[in-house]
Amino acid sequence: MMNKLLLSAMALLFSALHIQAQTISNAYDDGKPLGWGASVTGSNDENPITVTNYTEFVNACKVTTNKTIYVKGEISFSGSYSLNTNNKTIYGLPGSALVNTNRTDKSKTGILTIKGDNIILRNLTFKSAGAYDIDGNDNITVDGATNVWIDHCDIQDGVDGNLDVVNGADKVCISWTRFRYLIEPLANGSGGSDDHRNCNLIGNSDKNANKDTDKLRVTFKNCWWDEGCHERCPRVRFGKVHIANCLFSSSVVSYCIGYGYKSNIYAEGNAFTSAKAKKTPWKNYATSGSYTDYNITTKDNLGVNEEIQAKSGSEDYWIPSTDYSMSVYDASLVESVVGNEENGAGATLTINEGEAYTTGIETIAVETSLTNEDHAIYNQAGQRVNSNYRGLVIKNGKKYIQK
User: Fold this and answer.
1) C or N terminus of the chain, fewer CB within 10 Å?
2) Does a cis peptide bond (omega within 30 degrees of 0) precede residue 234?
3) Among candidates 240, 244, 245, which has minimal Cα distance to 317?
4) pTM value?
5) Residue 146 in contact with residue 92, Cβ under 8 Å?
6) In the sheet that 218-221 helps form, which strands lie side by side, from edge to edge?
7) Are 243 and 267 in contact (CB under 8 A)?
8) Among 249, 276, 250, 240, which Cα is nearest to 334's?
9) Which residues pair with 282 in a beta bridge?
10) What is d(CA 98, CA 163) in angstroms, rounded to the nearest whole number?
11) Taking the CA of residue 128 as centre, how many other CA atoms within 13 Å lie in the half-sphere pointing to its CB?
């Protein structure tokens, strides 16, 4: 009888909080923005609309009030659309994609440039035409935007890059996102690189101090730099960037994490699994002229020969716990958790048209171990788990989160 009551209470709470089994893919998925992006709310799941073509997509993005946009099917782009409005949530329905097949005309490359404030992208697949060094556009450019959460996206084959954060953008969380290149790079571009599968830049110039100082704060959590990524996974300037529980598995990567001018990086609990990733997990790019200051700390990573804490200049090492709290699990689990094709990084959520997925879970940490028989603990996929497990606690009709 007690079990039935607990299950009934759990179901009611899940419904009231808009939590469904499909949205939380595994016990390590918090289902909310973390770190620097923890305050992002997007549209608050208000005013939903489903779009099936470019015109509908643009019209929905132009609305100046809160708007929740569901992408259905494939939508074709010819150039990077600039999202200038605020308070938007864009969900990808299963099987959907934002696609741009232009490769050689740089003005027509790219898919989305985010310039607004308080933006959420979830479960979206971005497909471009493949890397070509012509100073084209990225699949996603977070350009001066603030409060951005990019979660469970699959970002493929950007002409210039897959996802960059530039020009004073700030307070960004990128979680459960898969980066990869499935198309062979095109040689002989005007930029000179024959293999420009360069995935992520945080800060695009050493000379951009006026815009980027004290900005470009980014958290990468549970992300996957998969096959084809050649470098910049990511490469950082200026920003305080936290890279945690991420997977680096590309067999062609020349280096993974690049620390550049004024970067302050904290990399922990990551797994470097391919031979190339293990060989060069990080590389110093703060080596030119007067642009030599940097900070980097690495801790508890798997597959590296040596952890480092290195700096040049007077700035102190940044420790994420001074700014926010975020749990990090053991690096030995990363490959199985993040690299799971069914519920790991990528567009692996089962989102249903018109349903809310992001509006608030109000959590209460349970500090003590709960062992009484008058409660049950479930992970956010709805599976009952042991008492020492992180998850939703139903106790005497009240909800708690055990962390």
Assistant:
1) N
2) yes
3) 240
4) 0.85
5) no
6) 48-51, 67-71, 88-92, 117-122, 146-151, 170-175, 218-221, 240-244, 263-268, 294-299, 309-312
7) yes
8) 249
9) 257
10) 14
11) 37
Residue type, 50: T
pLDDT digits (tens, 9 = 90+) for 292-316: 999 999 999 999 999 999 999 999 9
Residues 6+ apart with CB under 8 A from 205: 237
Instruction: Find the distance separating the first CA and the last CA of the chain, reported in whole Å.
Output: 27
Structure tokens at 224: 């996957």
Assign 282 to helix, strand or coil: strand
40 vs 173: CA distance, rounded Å: 9
The encoded tokens of residue 349 equal 């959520």
Instruction: Provide the H-helix boundaries in 242-291.
Output: 275-279
**Chain length of the chain:** 403
Task: Using DSSP bridges, classify how beta strands 247-248 and 88-92 pair: parallel, antiparallel or unpaired.
Answer: unpaired
Return the DSSP state at 36: G
Q: Could you give the domains of the chain?
A: 1-17+363-403 (no CATH), 29-360 (2.160.20.10)
Spatial neighbors of 11 by CB under 8 A, at least 6 apart, are none
* Residue reference for tokens 């922990």: 268
Can you tell me the distance from the alpha carbon of 174 to that of 185, in angstroms, rounded to the nearest whole number? 25
pLDDT tens-digit map of 88-112: 999 999 999 999 999 999 999 999 9
Q: Residue 344: CB partners within 8 Å, gap ≥ 6?
A: 25, 26, 176, 222, 224, 337, 338
> For the chain, percent helix, then strand, then coil, each to nearest 5?
10, 30, 55
CA–CA distance, 100 with 103 (Å, rounded to integer): 8
Instruction: Quote the CA–CA distance of 123 and 135 in Å, as a whole number.
Output: 27
Q: Is 401 exposed, middle or buried (0-12, 13-18, 19+ CB in 10 A)?
A: middle
Closest residue by Cα to residue 265 from 291, 284, 290: 284
DSSP 97: E
Residue 271 C-alpha from the chain's centroid: 16
